[in-house]
């Protein structure tokens, strides 16, 4: 059962110059009380939310008691991106979704942390959209994070990502069944032809099984997600760029003191591994504490939600408390 807490933010200045009079920031905490243990911030992906572990937790395989991110040892926090609708308060949805950027979301998350008297983070981790927010958080406060773990993501939106965001936006604004139809397109970005062909093998019972699978994904998302939320989360994906109004990537990244663990998926057709390998090679020239891990999977982008054993292998040394120096929040 979700146990949402709320932080009230007032007169928040958006990147585009507008002022948002009020933003409610909902979140959940897991494990140790705030202020008593190192803090791990988990950023959710496009259709995700703050329930990362426990009942209906979407990352139960990695987070919990005696798991890779052990809630016996850490305070784990997850914010809901404002407007994702998880609080079920209709008035908190955001209709002017193009006013917001990932830079705004990262600042909102930092404001939430400062409200909780958290000035440093042991780790910021997130997949896909959540990982992009993690990159921006590190760019905004380069000395306040010990471990930065962006998974299946990038520090910038490539032309390929921007193009697909446009297609999603067109579907969401023009389809008679926008959430379901947009989800059908998105699922083909999140998986691979090999994964789908291997799973369904052209089987059919009146209709092809792959068609049923896609239709069910669309229906399930429509039942739990709001249209305005989908529009906002999709739009955020194209606003990711830690060099915007800053200097070049190497200069910006050189200020980030965190250990950077880049995790990509070899078959990711959305945030492609080649981009992450290039990022790693550029970072190696200026940082010693940068590491690259690659999930090997047939499943594409969604492998970060499927290949838990590989992910746990990469993450376990980071979260092994025997290797963790004593850490106290400022």
Describe this structure in words.
InterPro entries: AB_hydrolase_1, AB_hydrolase_fold, HAT_MetX-like. This is Homoserine O-acetyltransferase. Keywords: Transferase. By secondary structure, this protein is α/β, with parallel strands linked by helices. It has 2 domains: 5-155 and 244-323, Alpha/Beta hydrolase fold, catalytic domain (Rossmann fold, 3-Layer(aba) Sandwich); 160-235, Rna Polymerase Sigma Factor, Chain: A (Orthogonal Bundle), CATH 1.10.1740.110. The protein is 36% helix and 20% strand. The strands form 3 sheets. An 8-stranded mixed sheet has the order 1-2-6-3-7-8-11-12, sandwiched between helices. Strands 4-5 form a two-stranded parallel ribbon. A hairpin with a 1-residue loop joins β9 and β10 (207-208). The chain is globular, with a radius of gyration of 19 Å. The model is unreliable at 325-330 (pLDDT under 50).
């Amino acid at each position: 059962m979700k146990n949402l807490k709320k932080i009230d933010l007032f007169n928040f200045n958006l990147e585009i110059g507008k002022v948002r009079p009020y933003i409610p920031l909902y979140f959940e905490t897991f494990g140790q009380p705030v202020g008593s243990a190192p803090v791990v911030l988990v950023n959710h992906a496009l259709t995700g939310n703050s329930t990362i572990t426990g009942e209906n937790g979407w990352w139960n395989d990695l987070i919990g008691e005696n798991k890779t991110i052990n809630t016996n040892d850490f305070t784990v926090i997850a914010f809901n991106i404002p407007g994702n609708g998880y609080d079920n308060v209709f008035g908190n949805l955001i209709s002017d979704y193009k006013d917001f950027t990932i830079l705004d979301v990262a600042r909102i998350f930092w404001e939430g942390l400062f409200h909780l008297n958290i000035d440093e983070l042991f780790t910021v981790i997130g997949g896909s959209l959540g990982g992009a927010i993690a990159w921006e958080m590190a760019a905004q406060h380069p000395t306040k994070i010990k471990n930065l773990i962006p998974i299946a993501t990038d520090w910038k939106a490539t032309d390929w990502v921007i193009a697909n965001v446009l297609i999603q936006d067109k579907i969401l604004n023009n389809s008679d069944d926008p959430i379901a139809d947009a989800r059908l397109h998105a699922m083909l970005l999140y998986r691979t032809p090999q994964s789908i062909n291997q799973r369904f093998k052209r089987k059919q019972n009146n209709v092809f099984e792959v068609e049923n699978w896609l239709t069910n994904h669309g229906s399930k998302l429509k039942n739990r997600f709001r249209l305005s939320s989908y529009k906002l989360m999709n739009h955020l994906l194209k606003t990711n760029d830690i060099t915007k109004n800053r200097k070049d990537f190497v200069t910006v990244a050189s200020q980030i003191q965190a250990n950077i663990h880049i995790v990509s998926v070899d078959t990711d057709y959305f945030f492609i591994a080649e981009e992450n390998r290039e990022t790693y090679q550029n970072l190696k020239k200026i940082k010693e504490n940068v590491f690259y891990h690659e999930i090997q999977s047939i499943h594409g982008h969604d492998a970060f939600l499927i290949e838990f054993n590989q992910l746990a292998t990469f993450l376990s040394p980071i979260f092994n408390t025997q290797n963790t120096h004593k850490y106290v929040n400022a």
